[in-house]
Amino acid sequence: MDFVNQWFWFILLIPTAALIGWIVGRRGGEHHSDTQVSQLSTTYFRGLNYLLNEQPDKAIELFLHIAELDKETFETQVALGHLFRRRGEVDRAIRLHQALVHRSDISDQQKVQALLALGEDYMKSGLLDRAETVYADLVALDGKAPQALKHLMAIYESERDWGKAISTAHQYEKATGENMGRLIAQFECELAERFIAKGEIQQARDAVKRAYDSDSDSVRAGMIEGRLALKEENDALAIRAFERVAKADPEFLPIVMADLMAAYRRRGDFVGAKSFLGSISEHYKGVAPVLALTKMVEEEEGVSKARAYLANELKERPSVRGEAALIDLTIADDSDPMKTLHDLKHITDQLLVRNPSYRCKSCGFGSRSHHWQCPSCRAWGTVKPQLNYALV
Description:
By secondary structure, the protein is mostly helical. The protein has helices spanning 3-27, 34-52, 56-69, 74-86, 90-101, 108-124, 128-141, 146-159, 162-176, 181-197, 201-214, 219-231, 235-248, 253-267, 270-281, 288-301, 303-314, 320-333, 339-354, and strands at 358-360, 366-367, 383-385. It has a 3-stranded antiparallel sheet with strand order 2-1-3, with no helix packed on it. α5 (90-101) packs antiparallel against α6 and α10 (181-197) packs antiparallel against α11. It is elongated and about 90 Å long.
């Protein structure tokens, strides 16, 4: 056994050994005979000795023997089941925890503990239907069992059963007092996306409204609302929705910028567009609003003015994409059409292609496309555009 594994099992088993030792000690003050207490204590110290000598397999077998000697050691048997599961012996853990669940001499609190452990065994082995049944039984036994509700949410999420996930999240929020609004809003948006794919637009709008009710700053709800408005050619509503997204979380501005500017242009509201871009630039340090303003300067005042404006702005917020835009303007201005500029443009384009446009704020996962749920760590709403890469 290598050094890392030695310490892993040492750290893993020490708490269990301490628990078993406490149970054995407590038994000494109860109705057990001196002979039985002595036998339990001797076995416990033998197991501890194996543990200290880095022989976890023998230690586990002895701790299991303690559970067999004293059927009242409920905590010991639950702990052993956890150890079996961690070692990959899930079938063994299931059998042990199933036996505990069916015991008639345990309290309701102990039954809850055994059901939780059994549900985790089923989840570890991929038996989600059985885990769902166990956790549903547990919620029926104790309507405020937060761990069971949390596991049920995870199951419904993996099964993409968003209706049940939403219902369980509300139940969990009521039981714990923990605000689940942001997660519920994501689930509602999943429903909205599903309705849109099926052409059920009114149901999609209803889901978006519920998402806003759960999280008034829901970025995803704003983006869905904006896209629905564009399909209906309602540019005023699209502008409100996309601006709501940018104000709620400016880091998502690059995703909605093109649609937002297109809506402004169709309405001919250049004053409103400039006002918004100037305001959002104070809160968003990326180059997206600067590039949008540069385009407007170019249309109104020409390439030279646009190049000068962009060059000045990039001193404060350097960006690869901003550099590429500046090169384009320099070439278009024909002020110094050096071959070097073309080479730099090629290099910059390559950098933009190679670097991920999005990165998960939780685990660092990089991607060229956006995901609402990180494919790596499974967190929701953490994959965002990179400040210094292609989209900003």
